[in-house]
Amino acid sequence: MTNPILLEKYSFGVGDRFAHQAAAQLRACTQLLNDGISVTPVWNKSYREHAIVGSAPESVRAAAEAAVSKLNWNGPFHIDADHIRLATVDAFIDSSDFYTLDVADTIGHAATSKDLDAFVNRHPELCGTLTIPSIEEPFVNTGSDVRRIAGKYLKAVQEASCLYRHISSQKGEGKFITEVSMDETDSPQTPFELLVILVAICDEKIPAQTIAPKFTGRFNKGVDYVGDIAQFEKEFNEDLAVIRFAVAKYDLPRNLKLSIHSGSDKFSIYEPIRKALSATGAGVHVKTAGTNWLEEVIGLAESGGAGLEMAKEIYRVSLDHIDDLCAPYATVIDIDRSKLPPKEEVRDWSSEDFANAVRHDLKCPDYNPNLRQLLHVGYKVAAKMGERYLEMLDACASVVAKNVTENLYERHLKPLFLEE
To answer: In angstroms, rounded to a whole number, what is the distance separating the alpha carbons of residues 44 and 50?
Structure first.
């Protein structure tokens, strides 16, 4: 294979639902590069987001390429067909070079007994006592344990293989980056389960460059991590150790790394992640999405006048349709409706009042995570505004862009990748 596309050590997936902030997002990467750290931007947008906004996959590449040209960016960048499935992938073939294969819905679906028997027989090394460097307790599993775990994940890996082959048949091997996503499921994977998944990925000959497991704790959209930080740190480090072990032992890409989905705004786990990366030399992919949209709303509010009125309108309509907006995101948001401000109160807010309530500043007494989460899912309201919303973004472009860049650089990239 000649010059396959390889994902760089550090990469950061950024969403841009309305395709107006690519330059502002890229500017954050240029600022970090000036600090001596290279992070590759990966613009991601799912089929669902395209359907809601009314955009097409090629619009993501067009916006990214325009930003790259505007800022004279000489580094790599990628376009991610986010959470793609066999039924939706074809529209992304021409414009994407990164595919997040979402097979979480297949987790728990039983593979055939023949396939399960074959997997266990093929991998006796997984049975008994298995010592992984940097993990204190060895893994101790019987053949029945391995078969049970394979029974939960093997079918999902086979689904990923089918999807990978479909993309490869059209783009060619080595012409795109593959991520396998297992995060949108109910239960987190243990480090040993991750190892079984990676072994199955190797068997299926999927050249996965990133793997997105489900970690312990809540990764709610647009707000901080909820859970035991010490447990997350232990789990994250053990997952890194499992990947190092699997890459050395099996035919997996040398640059295989962890991917953290819904990684935006998980401020409390950024330090453990940074420490682990520094100690091990590992890479990471962190995926964000909706926070860019929230920074747009903050920018509209800070612009005052018509921009502030539109921000208030988005909140009012979101509050009126809260059930419909929240239903698709029920597993990744936690909104205390009693703490949502009444529409009448918000009507009298100043630009500062609105921005303070939405901006994810944990030190600000006016910050309201319930309001922030409702607005996160309220992007459908702006989508229905159509050109009216886009024209307002253009009218408030400088203030919006400032918020987008500052959010990515100050709150995300610096804490993740720069020593304090």
So the answer is: 11
